[in-house]
Amino acid sequence: MMFCPNAKDWGNIADWVAGIGSLLAVAAAIWLAYRQSLLANRSAKKVRRSLIAEVMRLVAEIENNARTHSKAKILDLCDHLRSMGDLAKNDPQLFGEIAMSVRQASFTPEDTAHNREDAGFARIALAMQKRQQVFRELLKD
User: Fold this and answer.
1) Degrees to nearest 5, angle at CA 35 with 30 and 40
2) Distance from the CA of 76 to the CA of which of 4, 101, 124, 140 falls in 20 to 30 A?
3) 96-118 b/e (C-beta count within 10 Å ≥ 16 → b)
4) What string of DSSP letters covers 57-119?
5) In terms of residue numbers, what domain contains 84?
6) Count of domains in the chain?
7) How far apart are the C-alpha atoms of 118 and 97, rounded to whole Å?
8) How many CB atoms within 10 Å of residue 50?
9) In whole angstroms, what separates CA 62 from the centre of its chain?
């Protein structure tokens, strides 16, 4: 039954309810995706901070062992540092900084060939002191 012959057909109530429901479903899906992305980002930041804190601990321990001339312990700590690098492969900056730390904590052929391990220990201690500052800066990000 039509009251005005020139009136447009706006549909029935069921069409309107379905349309509004569809619009709300799309809005809810977008909000949920955004929320999930935020939570994932926060989680990734926590993992990164924990990884950096552990790397800083290892670097400080390498520095202390270099000051006490404990070569075996330094080599062991370098292995642990390498494994931290494996965990950081998805973060190129952190991965590179860890790799640089491992390289700088290693004894060079000159250190061992010319019986200059004392100089090697001093070099490693100084390098690890500088690496700690780099990781402190990364922790601020």
Assistant:
1) 125
2) 140
3) ebbeebbebbebeeebeeeeeee
4) HHHHHHHHHHHTT-HHHHHHHHHHHHHHHHHTTT-HHHHHHHHHHHHHTSPPHHHHHTT-HHH
5) 45-140
6) 1
7) 25
8) 11
9) 22
Phi, psi of 107 (to 5 degrees): -80, 140
DSSP state of 14: H
Q: What is the pLDDT of residues 29-76, one digit of tens each?
A: 999 999 999 999 999 899 999 999 999 999 999 999 999 998 899 999
pLDDT digits (tens, 9 = 90+) for 114-130: 667 788 899 999 999 99
99, 85 contact by CB (below 8 A)? yes
Let me know how long the chain is.
141
Q: Is residue 34 part of a domain?
A: no
Structure tokens at 130: 């500088």
Tell whether 23 is covered by a domain.
Answer: no
**Residue 5 belongs to a domain:** no
CA distance 118 to 130: 19
